[in-house]
Specification:
Length: about 325
């Protein structure tokens, strides 16, 4: 998902390590910087104390991934439609993400449509060991910025086969139902994905934009490993879904983790905190998410290499308990 900053010039993040120095490390090494001391603070929307998350890695089923991933949606043309104006740049962004240690890339057949998956294959195939490509199906595209769910079983099975071909894969590691179609019982849509899983075409299945009741209902049809809902400092509509994922040990993939195309409505408190840490507000927002929950798997996106590098560097920014609480209190204030 696209997340752009108007203030991307800071060279230092966290405790004084320069971005250049940090980016010289592999993320596998840099990720160990995430493992720090737990701090007891008040959890968002909770009346009980909870520990700040310090894990740098999460398992999607049997697949280990670094918790800060990459959302590839914004690599397509305007309106998430057609080819990007600079195709070579899009390929460079994808390759740079992997160079930086990102090993979870999120996409969908609806992005372009089809363009995003084709770009990923062009840039990265044959894929490096350990790279997890998560794609989605069940959302059609009549035109730019238009999205219409289609959950018919036969359509979804066709989507899986076409994604396999575009991504040049024999099996998709994580296939997500992009949206539930109100005209089709969810059980029928998921039943189709279960068939594809049994056939060996899908490894794991995820959901998107659903609450606890729907997630529990889906899990009666087949195992679910992730839920992808919109979530960031300002937008916490799906707090209950996050709590469910924590309880059930499911990965929670927040899309628009730093506000998407509209960005974040940053206030004086957030800006002052970011300035004090020598970071951008977007790095602070990502750091807040990573410490918010151990199941959080942010997938910030961009079509700009400098912004990508800045996002990845945010994985080492450790907020103090007081800083975290200051940001946590911003919910509903914008």
């Amino acid at each position: 998902m696209a997340d752009k900053s108007s203030n991307r010039k800071q060279e230092r993040v966290g405790t004084g390590v320069t971005r250049r120095t940090f980016l010289g490390m592999s993320l596998a090494t840099g990720a160990t910087l995430l493992a720090g001391r737990s701090a007891r603070i008040l959890g968002a929307g909770s009346s009980t104390t909870a520990s700040l998350a310090t894990n740098s890695v999460w398992k999607i089923g049997d697949l280990s991934v670094n918790r800060l991933g990459f959302g590839a949606m914004r690599l397509t043309g305007e309106g998430i439609w057609g080819w990007p104006p600079d195709r070579d740049n899009a390929l460079k962004v994808l390759r740079r993400a992997v160079e930086l240690g990102v090993n979870l890339i999120d996409t969908a057949d609806a992005y372009g449509p089809e363009v995003d998956e084709l770009l990923i294959a062009e840039a990265l195939h044959p894929y490096p060991k350990g790279l997890v490509i998560a794609t989605k199906g069940g959302n059609t595209r009549p035109g730019p910025n238009q999205w219409v769910p289609d959950g018919r079983p036969e359509y979804l099975k066709g989507c899986v086969d076409k994604s396999l071909k575009r991504l040049r894969l024999e099996r998709i590691d994580l296939y997500q139902l992009h949206r539930v179609d109100s005209k089709v019982p969810m059980e029928e849509s998921l039943g189709a994905l279960k068939e594809m899983q049994v056939a060996g075409k899908i490894r794991h299945v995820g959901l998107s934009e659903l609450g606890p009741e729907e997630i529990a209902r889906a899990r009666k049809v087949l195992p679910i490993v992730t839920v992808q809902n919109r979530y960031n400092i300002e937008d916490r509509k799906w707090e209950n879904a996050l709590a469910y994922c924590e309880k059930e040990n499911l990965g929670f993939m927040p899309w628009f983790p730093v506000g998407g195309g509209r960005g974040l409505k940053t206030g004086p408190a957030l800006e002052a905190l970011a300035k004090a840490r020598g970071a951008s507000v977007y790095q602070v927002a990502l750091a807040w998410l990573l410490q918010r929950s151990p199941v959080m798997l942010p997938i910030p996106g961009t079509s700009n290499i400098a912004h990508l590098e800045e996002n990845v560097a945010a994985a080492k920014l450790k907020l103090t308990p007081e800083e975290w609480k200051t940001i946590d209190a911003l919910a509903g204030q914008s």
